[in-house]
Amino acid sequence: xxxVKIKMASKEDRRMRLTICIPTLNRGSFIGATLESxxxxxxxxxxxxxxxxxxxxxxxxxxxxxxxxxPSLRYLRKDFESTGLNPPTTPAARFDRDCSLAVExxxxxxxxxxxxxxxxxxxxxxxxxxxxREQYGLIIVNAEVRSPDLAxxxxxRILRITADRVYRPSENQSLFVDxxxxxxxxxxxxxxxxxxxAREKEKYFGSGFVHVGVIxxxxxxxxxxxxxxxxxxIRYGNMLWGPRRFQIWMFDWPDLIWSFPHYSxxxxxxxxxxxxxxxVKTLLLLRAEGAFSPTEYSRIEPHLRSKxxxxxxxxIALSPGILLNFLGVLFCSVIHPRSTxxxxxxxxxxxxxxxxWKRFLRHKKGE
Length: 367
Fold this sequence. Notes:
This protein is α/β, with parallel strands linked by helices. It has helices at 31-39, 59-69, 80-83, 91-105, 124-132, 172-179, 193-198, 210-216, 245-257, 265-271, 280-289, 294-300, 307-318, 321-335, 340-347, 353-366, and strands at residues 18-24, 46-52, 73-77, 110-113, 119-120, 138-146, 153-155, 165-167, 189-192, 224-235. The protein has 2 domains: 11-235, Alpha-Beta Complex (Spore Coat Polysaccharide Biosynthesis Protein SpsA, Chain A); 244-366, no CATH class. Strands 1, 2, 3, 4, 5, 6, 7, 8, 9 and 10 form a 10-stranded mixed β-sheet that branches. The longest helix has 15 residues, at 91-105. Residues 1-14 and 80-85 have low confidence and may be disordered.
């Protein structure tokens, strides 16, 4: 169990303390398991707000079933076709807007931003409720990483810390370095609603990481807690960003991290490189995953420093993705078996031989 001290709430203290905010879109096949993991341990200090960006699957029916079990679950759906409103221009902008709307509609003192396909582990809500009584401005919750079917633990805890840690406002630089990369995962964030509402948000709509922008646009003015215990099971590989993978990790994420004015260049570089395309290893991995081709090469070519660097990058972009994927899977499976996360990425690649074989069979059936 976490070392956060357990405190019993008095009658005066039993107000709506925590809102679990879930932005969602067409995740009816997964959100039921997510809600079950929450509802099964929620108390009368907890509410759930599901902000649906316009699902066309059975998400609404799944959520409605849980509303009958848990009256403090609110479901709001943005139907752009019926309202005549213009939808956000990108999936990232839609996600950011829905995330922010969920917080705006929350009634809890704290908002736990949560993914629509991950699970809370038993006891997670009580641990976080106990932490909120200490009035931290921000609480970061550790997580384990599991396979898409949740059957295998790929990574027992993302933050490799053995004890909870409190960061004072004067230690914001250390907080940024220690948890910056982890915050690309939405579900680790529990934030005071008052702090969220006081900060600029629309500036970060379209980044796909509005929560990171809210947290780090300026130093957190109150103490922040990082909980060492893994309280969340991440369903890794269920959504690997599709064709936007290159855009996100080569441009969107670095641009966001390097936009924050209150952190040193050294601190930012420890979270992510300013220009990740200079790494041959990164380009090889992206090519093996199916996220780097001559099209993507044309986007980074103007940023490359020398003829040699351009030659190497273009050679990688033109290399057989099937071969690089095979070598990558071999390396992760035999030579470096602890590379479980990279292996999942490679197996989900269109270059993975089983995926290509399945596509071939579907093509044959269609003939």
